[in-house]
Amino acid sequence: MLTVAPQNMTHGFPLPEALPRHVLVVDDSRAQRRILTMSLARSGYRVTEADSGMSALALCRETAFDIVLSDWMMPEMNGLDFCREFKVLPRDGYGYFILLTSKSEKAEIADGLDCGADDFLAKPVNLDELRARLRAGERILGMQAELMEKNRLVGSTLDELQKIYDSLDRDLIEARKLQQTLVRERFRDFGGGEVSAMLRPSGHVGGDLVGFFQINEQRIGVYSVDVSGHGVASAMMTARLSGLLSGSTPDQNVALRVDETGARDAHPPEVVAARLNRMMFDDIQVEQYFTLAYADINLETGFVELVQAGHPHPAVIRKGGTVEYVGTGGLPIGLIPDAEYDRVQTWLTTGDRLFLVSDGVTECPSPGGEELGEEGLTRILLANQSMSNPALLEALIWDLAAYFGGEDFPDDVSGALYKMKG
């Protein structure tokens, strides 16, 4: 083995600006090695010699040579076998391999390429051609080093993004837990009737909200909300609306009031919708809007007054085995200032149910893209009518998953189900 230091001469060869490229010359002919070594050293390269493939391979295990010039025909280990072993050695950078050969058959050249050789140089070596081959190798090594640096920067950036994503994911998981607490009760028996609620966001957090509250001893309020969009902004809006609808006193709950006798009462449903619409423009002032179904239910008589503001039609599930859809549609809240809303009335008898449901149910698509719609919802409700309220809502989720082809629904799924006990 012989290592030759670079000289301050170029002879037309590129002289690296920083540390010169390290070239390994492998040939069993000492004379051939000396010719190549001296030419390369005068051109500014660091050069190391090896007299066989075996000794060259041992050197390559210790040193990451930039370029290898290896003879094809050598005893013990020829140039092809050495090239194979060289290419599988672990190293950080790329090693450019040039085979020196007197062979010119296309099949033999193909064998060299299959072994991993990057280029060929015919023997006896022509110095002008050697310059061209080395310049090509320099370009490849430069591009490879640049690519490695870019990959390193990409990898570092991805690592940082992964840390940020993991942090956001943890925060969103906690936000999901907090959002679930907005539905303070999933079931309550009011004596004359009972209410069950379900809330299943399509992502970590969603824009749906359901709930109920007691107006007085005879009446309750039940609501279903769907905020436009998805994600954190929608979830924050549901938190704001939860505070406006779930409070137990008139100064906390936008639907409650005190009548002229000082007794607890509630605004008519259409007034509740109008008050929320006015608050969206005067106080909240965001780009979002939401749909609402809100019902004022008399526990003793079964008389229901409700408003539908852009929400799917509330379903009345009759004990006798029919489903009616009520409501007039209406405008979403926060979309048009001074919008007007209509009050709808209906009656429930013992065993009847009222279902306020989000469009995540009615617009849930099948694998073929067909929405469930009111007809599909009717089939599910009637098929599970004999179940209790909580069991019926659970069955609805299962049937919806079967219809969709999975449980990762494209939209939030929510609803509030009231049953008249009489």
Percentage beta strand: 15-25%
Strand tally: 19
Mean pLDDT: 87
Q: What Rg is obtained from the alpha carbons, in whole angstroms?
A: 39 Å
CATH superfamily of the largest domain: PPM-type phosphatase domain
Looking at the overall shape, the CATH architecture of the largest domain is 4-Layer Sandwich
Structural class estimated from helices and strands: alpha+beta
Q: What gross morphology would you assign?
A: rod-shaped
* CATH fold-level topology of the largest domain: Phosphatase 2c, domain 1
Strand order of the largest sheet: 1-3-2-4-5-6
Order of helices and strands: EEHEHEHEHEHEEEEHEEHEEEEEEHHHE
Runs with pLDDT <50, length 5+?
A: 7-16
Q: How much helix, percentage-wise, in residues?
A: 25-40%
Query: What would CATH call the class of the largest domain?
Result: Alpha Beta
Structure annotation, total helices: 10
Q: Report, as a whole number of angstroms, the end-to-end distance.
A: 102 Å
How many structural domains in the coordinates?
2
Largest beta-sheet details: 6 strands, mixed
Molecular structure report:
With 422 residues, the chain is an alpha+beta fold. It has 2 domains: 3-150, Rossmann fold; 181-420, Phosphatase 2c, domain 1 (4-Layer Sandwich), CATH 3.60.40.10. Helix content is 37%, strand content 23%. The chain has 10 helices and 19 strands. The protein has helices spanning 30-42, 53-62, 79-87, 106-114, 127-180, 232-245, 269-284, 359-362, 373-383, 389-404; strands at residues 3-4, 22-26, 46-50, 67-71, 96-101, 119-122, 187-189, 193-200, 208-214, 219-227, 256-258, 264-266, 290-298, 303-309, 315-317, 323-325, 344-347, 353-357, 413-420. The strands form 4 sheets. Strands 1-3-2-4-5-6 form a 6-stranded mixed β-sheet, sandwiched between helices. A 6-stranded antiparallel β-sheet has the order 7-8-19-18-15-16. A hairpin with a 4-residue loop joins β13 (290-298) and β14 (303-309). α2 (53-62) runs parallel beside α3. The radius of gyration is 39 Å and the shape is rod-shaped. The protein starts with a strand and ends with a strand. Mean pLDDT is 87; it is low at 7-16. One of its GO terms (molecular function) is phosphatase activity. The modification 4-aspartylphosphate is found at residue 71. InterPro entries: Bact_Sigma-Reg, CheY-like_superfamily, PPM-type-like_dom_sf, PPM-type_phosphatase-like_dom, Sig_transdc_resp-reg_receiver. Residues 22-138 form the Response regulatory domain. Keywords: Hydrolase, Phosphoprotein.
